[in-house]
Design brief:
Layout lengths: L17 E2 L6 E5 L13 E2 L1 E5 L2 E6 L5 H8 L3 E2 L1 H7 L3 H5 L8 E7 L5 H11 L7 E6 L10 H20 L4 E7 L7 E2 L1 H13 L5 E4 L1 E4 L12 H4 L3 H8 L3 E5 L22 E2 L7 E7 L13 E2 L9 E7 L8 H4 L2 E4 L2 E4 L5 E6 L7 E5 L2 H19 L7 H11 L7 E2 L29 E2 L1 H12 L3
Parallel strand pairs: 2-8, 3-10, 6-20, 7-9, 7-11, 8-9, 11-13, 13-15, 15-19
Antiparallel strand pairs: 1-4, 4-12, 5-21, 12-14, 15-16, 17-18, 20-21, 22-23
Helix pairs in contact: 4-5, 5-10, 6-8, 10-12, 11-12
């Protein structure tokens, strides 16, 4: 995993590979001890998926997409465009806004200005804000805006919170901040899993958004075929399944490859990342939206592949789960990712507002699958509300919907099949073709139709 990079204070290009974060006004301290990890050198590190995927920094106010094209040669989108693109407005008119549902976002360190920043974001785009509850897990260190690791996670937190709110405006958001203490074998992941299990056991949260990951190959024992270091971290996901809590994870921003243990390079062969690769997690991949200033598509979605690429491919740890039997011709004998995809391209990135770094207060354009994951967490909150219950593990219902209804309007699934791919850093990836593929999974969604179809299908799975 990589260490997150800091933001720069000017409108400059700075690209990278992974991200996560979220914070709030009410701070609820919790304590907990990390579950013991296997004894080994601490190479594996939890890293925010957003690190480096910010192209425009500290702008005074958000521009229209047309203005972004003229100024920076990229598209840039606000929440009203996402609402149009994903057909969310009919749900809102029907009262499906995420009300009564809670999205849990897990990030290290968090952001000290998260509530203020969400308020500014919401007011600027004319949408109502929401209360962000911050839960501190363990001895979270005092905020230091000069600490690049902290600011990297704060950027992820900001993106996560604002994207989840953009889709599910009435959902409650809980930002869980972890301390990322040094542990044997892995860094940060036991604390995150402990925090998630604590939230689940306390009945807090209907969906958990994880915009972070670590390459499977970096876990202790992997090179010897010993996957126990990953298996011992799965307890939170098993607990989530038992309590009908949905767990999501970004598929990564390295295409068919991902970061080496030093965080500086990439593997020269196809690899995958955990927790996205876990069969108990729904893996969220990345697309590129092509929208006008009103959010209408000017051409169909393509694969996210600019300044990063949507993660996808076969797991080397997990075999093919039963829910992917219907796509065995594509995935072979392995668990494959992603499962479904949302907006992630930097060229077509999201406007976010932050003030945690006093040298770079203002508006950024950010992307990566750490954008896609919280966007989809909002979709899940809407589906839970529409169902009147938690949908829990989505994978069986998602693939059943794909198998039985495919891309009929009734399913709400939208195929991404334009022939683009997620090849990255010299490693050949996968092409978006008709049907399921390891570039975008089953594709993306028309939210109004998908929310209702998912609620309907989940009753039988």
């Amino acid at each position: 995993m990589r260490i997150p990079r800091s933001r720069t204070s000017a409108a400059t290009a700075a690209f990278g590979a992974t991200a996560l974060a979220t914070a709030a006004a009410l701070t609820v301290p919790l304590t907990g001890s990390a579950t013991a990890a296997p004894a080994a050198a601490p190479h594996t590190r939890a890293v925010p998926a957003v690190a480096g995927h910010t192209l425009v920094h500290a702008v005074g106010s958000p521009l229209t997409s047309e203005q972004c094209q003229a100024k920076w040669k990229i598209a840039c989108y606000g929440p009203l465009q996402y609402r149009q693109a994903y057909n969310l407005n009919p749900l809102y008119k029907a009262g499906i806004t995420g009300k009564g549902r809670t999205i849990v976002i897990v990030d290290s360190f968090g952001s000290p200005t998260i509530q203020h920043d969400l308020d500014v974001y919401s007011k600027t785009f004319g949408i109502k804000s929401a209360k962000v509850e911050v839960v501190k897990w363990g001895k979270v260190p005092q905020w230091d805006p000069k600490n690049e690791e902290m600011t990297g996670w704060a950027g992820e937190s900001t993106l996560d919170v604002e994207m989840a709110h953009a889709v599910a405006p009435d959902a409650k958001i809980v930002l869980v901040e972890t301390a990322v203490a040094e542990t044997e074998g892995v860094t940060g992941l036991p604390e995150m899993m402990d925090a998630e299990k604590a939230m689940i056991d306390r009945g807090v949260g209907d969906v958990i958004s994880q915009s972070f990951g670590a390459t499977e190959n970096t876990f202790p024992g992997f090179d010897k075929g010993d996957f126990s270091s990953i298996q011992k971290l799965r307890y939170a996901f098993k607990d989530a399944a038992a309590h009908k809590v949905t767990v999501l994870a970004s598929s990564g921003d390295g295409g068919a490859t991902d970061n080496t243990a030093d965080g500086k390079g990439y593997y020269t062969k196809p690899v995958n990342s955990w927790p996205s690769s876990d069969p108990l997690v729904t893996s969220i991949g990345g697309t590129q939206l092509h929208l006008d200033d009103h959010g209408n598509r000017v051409r169909r979605d393509s694969v996210y592949n600019d300044n990063g690429a949507g993660g996808g491919g076969q797991s080397h740890v997990f075999g093919r789960p039963q829910f992917q039997n219907g796509v065995r011709g594509v995935v072979g004998n392995r668990r494959a990712t992603p499962d479904v995809s949302m907006s992630a391209a930097v060229n077509g990135g999201a406007w976010i507002y932050s003030s945690y770094d006093p040298t770079a207060v203002g508006w950024d354009v950010s992307g990566g699958t750490s954008e896609a994951c919280p966007l989809f967490s909002g979709i899940v909150a809407l589906a839970d509300q529409a169902s009147g219950r938690r949908l829990g593990d989505l994978n069986e219902a998602l693939y059943a919907l794909y198998k039985h209804e495919g891309y009929k309007p009734s399913s709400g699934l939208v195929d991404v099949n334009d022939g683009t791919n997620n090849s990255y850093k010299g490693v050949t990836g996968y092409t978006a073709v008709n049907g399921y593929d390891m570039a975008t999974g089953v594709g993306t969604v028309d939210a109004t139709r998908f929310v209702r179809a998912l609620a309907r299908t989940s009753r039988h799975h």
